[in-house]
Amino acid sequence: MKKVVHFGAGNIGRGFIGALFSQSGYHVTFVDIADEIISRLNEEKAYKVKTAEDQPKVTEIQNVLGLNNMKQEEAVIKAIEEATYITTAIGPNILPHIAPLIAKGLKGRLDSSNEKVYVIACENQISATDILKGHILKAMDDDATNKIEGTVHFFNSAVDRIVPIQDNKNSLDVLVEPYFEWVVETIEDIPTVEGMTKVADLAPFIERKLFTVNTGHAVTAYFGYLDGKETIDQTLNDPSIYEKVKATIEETGAYLIKRYELDEAEHQKYIKKILGRFQNQHLHDDVTRVGRSPIRKLGAEDRLVKPLVEAKKLGLSYQNLASAIAACLLFDVGEDPEAAQLQKMIQEHGITYVLNELSLLNETDEAVQTIVEKYESLKAEYRK
Ligand SMILES: NC(=O)c1ccc[n+]([C@@H]2O[C@H](COP(=O)([O-])OP(=O)(O)OC[C@H]3O[C@@H](n4cnc5c(N)ncnc54)[C@H](O)[C@@H]3O)[C@@H](O)[C@H]2O)c1
Ligand SMILES: O=P(O)(O)OC[C@@H](O)[C@@H](O)[C@H](O)[C@H](O)CO
C-alpha cells in the first residue's frame, strides 16, 4: 500500500486531502499538534466524511493514523522515509515551522533511497509549495540539497472545498460541501490520486479560485461580521450584502477575464456557482472562520489587495475591492489573534501605515485614499 504523510489533521486535511488519498488506496499518516485528534485517529483508525446537502453522502475513511510532530519526531521522520506523497493543509503561516522536520525526513530518505517523493502544499496561498520548498532547503545541508534534484518533486496546487469548523469536537467526522477541486501543477506521470486534476500551468486556476471563491468569501465574512451576522449563508440572505459580494467578484472577474483571456459567459457561470456554494444552508460556516487571520488576508499577494492592484493597473474598477479591504480593517474579533494585532496596529499607527506595512500599498497611491475614505464611512455606519 502506498503511503502519504499529511501535515494538518484539521478540516481540509481530514475532510478533503486525507480523504481523497484514503479513497485512492493510500495509507494516510496525519501529523498534527492537536493531541485529542491524534489519539482519536489512533484509537478509531477511521472516520466519516459527510456531505452538506439534503441527502448527505457518507463515506468511511480508513487506513489512517496520527502522529504528534512535537512529541513523535522520530516516527514522523520514519513515515516521511516511507511516503510517496507529503502534503500539507496547515495554514500558510505554519509552513516555516514544519519545514525543518520535513527536511530531516527527506534527508534520512535521500541517504538510503532515490525513490521519488512528491511534496504538495494545499493552502490558500499562491506558490505555497515553492514557499515550503524554500524553507525546507534552508533547513537542509548541501549534501541533501544536491540529492533532491530528480527525486523530491515539489508541485504547487489549488485546493477548493468549503469545510466549516465542526460542531462536534468529540468526533473525527467531518461535514464538507459536496463540491471539490484539487488542481496540481505538473505534467509528470505521477501515482494516481482520485480527484486530483493535473495542469501544466496553475496560475489561471489558482488566481481564479483565490480571487473568486476566497475574495467573495472574505467580503461576505467582513460585511456579515459588521452587520452582526453569524454565518456566511445567513449573510448572503441580506440582498444588499449579496449585491456587494457579487459586485466585488465581478471586479476580480474583469481582471481575471482580461489577464487570462477567460470566456466571459463561462466566468459569469463560475461566479454564479460560487455564490450558490456560499448559500448552502447545511454548512453553517461562521463568518469568524472565513474572515480569520485578517493580517494574512491583507497581504500584497492575497485575495483582496492583489486583485485591487491588478485591476487598477489595467484601468478597471476597484471600488468594491477597496470597500472589502476597508471592511477587513474593521474585523475586530477578540478570539482571533491576528484581528487583535491588526486593531492594535490601527490604533497605534493608523490605516495608512497598516496598508503600507501589510499590503505594501504606498500612501501616495490613490487606492489608499479610497480605502481610507471607505473605512471612515463604514466605521461611521457600523460603529455608531
Ligand atoms: N476549510 C476550508 O474550507 C479550506 C478550503 C481550502 C483550503 N483551506 C486551507 O487549508 C489550510 C488548513 O485549513 P483548515 O480549515 O483545515 O484549518 P484547521 O484549523 O481546521 O486545520 C489546521 C490544522 O493544523 C494543525 N496545526 C497547526 N499548527 C500546527 C503545527 N505547528 N504542527 C502541526 N499541526 C499544526 C491544527 O492543529 C489543525 O488541526 C489553510 O491553508 C486553509 O486556507 C481550507
Ligand atoms: O482558509 P482561509 O482563511 O484562507 O480562507 C477562509 C475561507 O475562504 C476558505 O477556507 C474557503 O472555505 C476555502 O478556500 C474554499 O475552498
Helical fraction equals 40-55%
Number of domains: 2
How many helices does DSSP assign?
17
Number of strand elements: 12
Give the end-to-end Cα distance, rounded to a whole number of Å.
Answer: 61 Å
From the alpha-carbon coordinates, what is the Rg to the nearest angstrom?
A: 21 Å
Strand line-up across the major sheet: 5-2-1-6-7-8
The global form is globular
Tell me what the CATH architecture of the largest domain is: 3-Layer(aba) Sandwich
* Main sheet makeup: 6 strands, parallel
* CATH level-four homologous superfamily name of the largest domain: NAD(P)-binding Rossmann-like Domain
Poorly predicted tracts of residues: none
The SSE order reads EHEHEEEHEHEHHEEEEEHHHHHHHHHHH
The CATH topology assignment of the largest domain is Rossmann fold
| Ligands and ions found | nicotinamide-adenine-dinucleotide, D-Mannitol-1-phosphate
Output the structural class: alpha/beta
**How large a portion of the residues is in β-strands, by DSSP E?**
5-15%
What is the arithmetic mean of pLDDT? 97
- CATH class of the largest domain equals Alpha Beta
